[in-house]
Amino acid sequence: MTKETTLQYQALQKGGPFALVSVPKPEPGPGEVSIRLKVIGLNPLDWKKLHIGEIVPSWPCVFGLDGAGIVEAVGHGVRDFKPGDEVFSLFGHELRASSFQEIAIVSEHFVGKRPENLTFEEAATLPICYLTAAASIYYALKIPLPFLPEGETSGPQPSTILVLGGSSGVGASAIQILRLALPTSVILTTSSPQHHEHLRSLGASEAFDRTSPNLVEDIKSHTPGGKGVEMIIDAVASAAKQTSIFEVLAEGGPKEYAEVFTGVKIEVPDGVKRNVAFGRNMFQMPGGKHAITALAELVRQGKYRVPLQIQNAGNGFEAIARGLEDLRKGVSGTKLVVTV
Ligand SMILES: NC(=O)c1ccc[n+]([C@@H]2O[C@H](COP(=O)([O-])OP(=O)(O)OC[C@H]3O[C@@H](n4cnc5c(N)ncnc54)[C@H](OP(=O)(O)O)[C@@H]3O)[C@@H](O)[C@H]2O)c1
Predict the structure, then answer these.
(1) Which ranges carry the Enoyl reductase (ER) domain (predicted)?
(2) Which residues surround ligand 1 with Cβ inside 6 Å?
């Protein structure tokens, strides 16, 4: 009997090229779900792994953190999913769990049923940006998330908070999660002006041109008494170049800075508390293993929207290489996906 095989889109070495390679079809272990990918979401970490070798254990390597597809098989003890279910999921870390392949195996906690009001393309763009945004709020700043079953119910409730990089996938997700967690707080953000209206529609109280020479004064003028904000979430390492941004933190306030890990070194002034966030930190938090199912429910209820516009970079695994090049050159308020 010939063993069943599946295709992997492997990066052969740092800088590429990629090759489509046939490998034995993997089987899910206990608590795992095997997913046949339909749509793959592309992320900056994918091109950073390819070109910088960031957290690549060895070559050849398979990347991919986001995707949506159909459950192929489930491992022992998995009750919430069955073959044929339409799902979206966090992928990545291990080769067998990465989404740049026909079939990937992930922990059941990474998977959610595709909300009926989302296409596969839309669902494939959500997980890592949502988890990272949630981790910056809940893990790094300790702000409780009211939509998480078994989550913390008490913690800081800042009345003013700034999201740097609101038009990034992580930033636009953070604005929405903050609005759910802090319904009456002042949530400010920075981006290019063409995204301001959209970011206000996601829940930002006000958005500011990130290149304004008066950015600090602009932001402070929108806080009570002009005092500044209590906390900052930096989704795009913008404080690395714009060091004066820390002046927006209110004197006498908690001066908390949540840094989404980007690989860029950021100098933080004395007196500012820095906490670094990774998306996967969510799974070590109380209630965190429900984060993806909670996301699916928020989407179903219309409380969480697809944060950015979506651009399809093409059909077939080969489109991934082109999409990653586009991502490396820089996108604005856009999430790239590939259909397979
Ligand atoms: N630690 C983790 O677990 C984790 C997980 C996911 C992502 N990340 C990292 O988080 C970062 C964001 O990822 P993403 O997918 O959200 O990125 P993205 O959507 O590709 O980010 C593009 C956006 O960044 C904005 N931007 C760039 N520089 C900016 C600045 N100085 N100030 C304000 N906005 C700026 C641009 O805004 P405009 O076009 O409006 O100017 C653009 O819309 C990446 O470095 C990624 O590697 C980390």
Answers:
(1) 15-338
(2) 43-45, 128-129, 132, 164-165, 167-170, 190-192, 195, 210, 235-236, 238, 260-262, 278-279, 331-333
Reported in sequence order, the residue ranges of the chain that DSSP labels E, i.e. its strands, are 5-11, 18-24, 32-41, 66-74, 86-90, 103-107, 111-113, 160-164, 186-191, 206-209, 231-234, 256-260, 273-277, 309-315, 334-339
The partner residues of 111 in beta bridges, in order of sequence, read: 89
Question: For residue 270, how far is its CA from the centre of ligand 1 (angstroms)?
Answer: 25
The domains found in the chain, sorted by start residue, are: 5-125+308-339 (3.90.180.10), 130-279 (3.40.50.720)
Query: pLDDT tens digits, the chain, 340 residues: what are they?
Result: 567 999 999 999 999 999 999 999 999 999 999 999 999 999 999 999 999 987 899 999 999 999 999 999 999 999 999 999 999 999 998 899 999 999 999 999 999 999 999 999 999 999 999 999 999 999 999 999 999 999 999 999 999 999 999 999 999 999 999 999 999 999 999 999 999 999 999 999 999 999 999 999 999 999 999 999 999 999 999 999 999 999 999 999 999 999 999 999 999 999 999 999 999 999 999 999 999 999 999 999 999 999 999 999 999 999 999 999 999 999 999 999 999 9
- Closest atom of ligand 1 to 334 CA is 19
CA of 47 to the centre of ligand 1 (A): 13
